[in-house]
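Fig. S4 source data, part A: sequence.
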Amino acid sequence: KEAITLVRSRKSPVEPSTGPRWKHVADVGPVAIFENNRALPRAWLASSERIANDAQQLQIIRTGKVSSETEWDPLTEALVERATGLAFPKEKPARGTTEIIDRTPNRVELETKSNTPSILILADNFYPGWRSEVDQRPQPLLRVNYNQRGVALPGGEHRVVFSYQPRTMLTGLLVSGATLLLLLLWMNSRPRATEP
């Protein structure tokens, strides 16, 4: 029997490979297995932003170019709908680090470290109901790179938590609780039959 072992890393690589995109790793029966050497990390810190609408963001992502002569580097520049208000440095700063501490279907906890302001990008879909906290304080969730989650961070070390808390779930709990309360009130207000 042959088996494939998937290796999970909590730390994101900081430099993408510039070699060939696909590396042949193994053959398992009739299946060839390749490694994508240019895959982006699960989470990373971008040290600049580019304001672009949806159509512009998709065009940049598809072509890998901001303009005919300028390449887009997703590891250093986040595509956002509006300015975050961060004061990014003019010169290229040292790359910050991210580490995923805990990951469950409804929660992702990370630690970050950067000397300058940055945008933490999590390579998960942006979807209503997700919330973000930085150092236990609510922080606005950003939609970056067309459909990924992000959060603006000042320089320094931070603990960031993304959690899924949809309003529909809270609404459902409130309606269910109110219904239960009304049912209990109704049951207690009915006249009770007395035994002879």
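Fig. S4 source data, part B ends here. DSSP finds two helices and 15 strands in the chain.
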